[in-house]
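Running this now, will post back.
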Amino acid sequence: MRHVGLSLRSFRRAPGFVAIATLSLGLALGLATSVFALMDAMTHPESAYRDVDRLFEVVIAVGGRFARGPSGPSRTELEASLAGLPSVQQLATARWASGDVEAGGTTAEASVAFTRPGFFELLGVRPRLGRLAAPAERDVAVVSDPLWHNRFVGRGLAGATVTVGGQSYSVIGVLPPHAETPHGTDVWIPDPTPDTGGLGVALVRLRKGATERTAEAELKAVAARFTQVYTRPTEKPYAAWLNPLRPNPLELKDFHRAMVGAAICVLLIACANVSALMLARGMVRRRDYALRLALGARRWDIAREVVAEMAALAVLGCVAGAIVATWAVGGMTRATPQEMQWLGFVAPHWSLRVLALSALAVIASVAVAGGVPAWQASRTDPATPLKERTGGSTGRAGTRFRWLVMAELALSMTLLVSASLMLKSVTKMARYDFGYDARGLLSVNVGFGWRDGLSLEERERVLAELLNRIRATPGVRSAAAMSRGGCSSVLITDRTIEGGPGGYLPKGCTNVSPDFFRTLGIRLLDGRDFSEGDAALRGAVILDQRTAQRIFPHERAVGRMVKLGSLASTHPWVPVVGVVRDQPLDFNPFPELGADTSAVVYATIAGEGRPRDLFVVRPASSAVNVSVAVTRTLKAALRTRSYVYARSWAWAFDAQLHQEQYLTLVFALLGAASLALGAAGLFSVISYITGQRMREFAVRIALGATGENVLRLVMREALVMALGGTALGAGLGMWAGFLLWDKMWGVYPVDAGALIAAEATLLLVTMLACLGSARRATHSNPVDVLRAI
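Update: finished.
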């Protein structure tokens, strides 16, 4: 305690030293703790449910497919069967559906669960906001945390409603994050018709001591009874198993490890910064240490005093770090895009593991930042400082700190290169030009039930009728259809018969409908788009420019004949009616690596390949909620076993862009922190060196040196350390870039532009940080300095 008291009294005489050291440790500890919390949330995902290890979903299947149809057992029968199992302590069921949900003034497709009483009690979940529905309550709804944030931004529960199936429900509660059971549910409503919709979704809580294995053995008897009652001898039997509700941990990849490494680098920079400050402080106090040693003090007492000072700084740093960590964790939680949550990249949270890692980081900081200064102070020779008339020295005063500062700046440079690479990647991705207005398009997927009984020809007729309905929907400017699979793997031309090259292997052969390219907005270089009469006759083909030049190198491709199949196949010969410019429908992350030379073919041929069950819709410029209108139109025309899913044509690109932006934000934050810490460390050391060399500067000025000469001396000292740090950090940064390569878009880790940007930023900031100390040296008054000797 005596050493702590001495440390606090000495801190009062050096407020600048305390401020820089505390802020350095606080910023580093806060950011490191935030990254630790993020990694912990991924490797140990948090559950909103009580005792989640005992919670399971009961899956009933027939022939490997979920048994959800009305031809099998009802939910009431399933509940009665599960209630009699010895391993089951509690059970609840829900009817799950997907449909249009109007909430917060917008309408979009969402997942809805119609629950029976006891559903939330089984899960043991508590609402984050509001309350849960009472057993006999109707016309109320509970919503998920993502839906609340997306649809009801900045408002309370009062007056909040959701509309499902034309009926309005009052929102009475909001569930906490990660409580979207079953199957990513957005809205929970008490079921008004509890015994409809087949089995629905059944959840069970096992008794204490019961295992998943014993429960599944008991479920086999239930499945056998359902098989006996609801299947014929020639039909496949029922099967039953359990799916745990515990969230699966995310496997850490290289870019995750890079994030942890970046956080540790920030912590090491702060430790080096504080260590340099403590060494400089020890150099100033050498005469005091020497005098105490000469009077009989032990070297251990000197070292312990330095360690006590470092521990006191660590405590202050922990307070500042807790504030920074709270802010950073909240910011990461708000900035985490929904797309990353779908991939398991959840928002960070606090846990005992995070606190333990933070405590370990504090102990390591004290050991690293205080160990060397304590050893250096304890090794003070009493004779040498007492012989000195002053603490001044020559230009060699900062030599002992040079390598420490260079290592600090090298780590900062490493993070800046990584942040620069990510920033260049996300900027390049955000500016990507599809070549057509992809973001203004809608993609509408249609799926048929596995027991719909439709033949291929009947499905094609249904899809053609659906396309006409889409085109007639208000707000739709144009629409087309395409298949999600290739129509052929071989392309034969009429030149093959004449002795020309053999068949080509198309990279992509897509069966599309008329007006496909007009809907996408892709320009044809020659010929025309597909027309309604093409498929009615024998079909037609459009080639991309690269393929046309390859197959017909010295003539016009339009008007030639091709066959989508081998020469001996029965496929018809069809004309080439157009040539479209080379335009990938998806985004290409490395367009500069050269064009693909494989053939790309677009065809419109009836009965060829997979059905055209993917629709491309171009809304009118002033239309709103077109996706909802199209979804309603198609659902009204389809059978109940079919599904419709509408979203942006560029949804995959946008999802990846949001992920890139989030990771760039994290690395930019860590890089900015490392830059600030590195600049502060260099400023502190240069300030100390300048103070130690004031006598030298005064003599130089007295002998005729100008302020510009002195300024050049100080800035050269700073530039040598900054250049040394950037040279070492550049290599480390490019090596670290390979850890992020799978998350970089169109950028190679060894990138000259990113490297130059990082070096220029580091040099500019560090030189500006040292400019104040350098200007102070130029104003040295020789008379005052020499009088103080």
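The mean pLDDT is 77. More later if anyone needs it.
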